[in-house]
Amino acid sequence: MKALKKARKLIENAPESTEARILSALVVALESDAAYPVNDLYKLNFDNFELALDLLKEWRLDRYYMSKVRLLDLSVQLGEMDKADTAVAPAA
């Protein structure tokens, strides 16, 4: 299974996990050419760190266009959910 599909499945299956959020942020940063805090990758367990590296390789190759679009869409949705949750959360 390719890294793009693995990342998409991880995000779909556990969108609230730290690992899904880190990978989602990486995907959004790659697509938007935005800065990404590389040290966040060190928060991943070893298997997901390797997944992130494989994701970078595949992204660079840009061979899996449709898988990339689905993964990006899911990652953007998760980011929007985070923004909505932050906006709704009461101030302390």
Summarize the structure in words.
By secondary structure, the chain is mainly α. It has one domain. It is 72% helix and 0% strand. It has helices spanning 3-13, 18-32, 46-61, 65-88. The radius of gyration is 13 Å and the shape is globular.
| SSE run | HHHH
Total number of helices:
4
Strand proportion: under 5%
Number of strands: 0
The separation of the N and C termini measures: 44 Å
Overall pLDDT confidence: 86
What is the fold's blueprint, element by element?
Elements: H1 3-13, H2 18-32, H3 46-61, H4 65-88
Brief rundown of the structure:
The chain has 92 residues and is mainly alpha-helical.
Key traits:
globular, single chain, about 90 residues, mainly alpha, about 70% helix
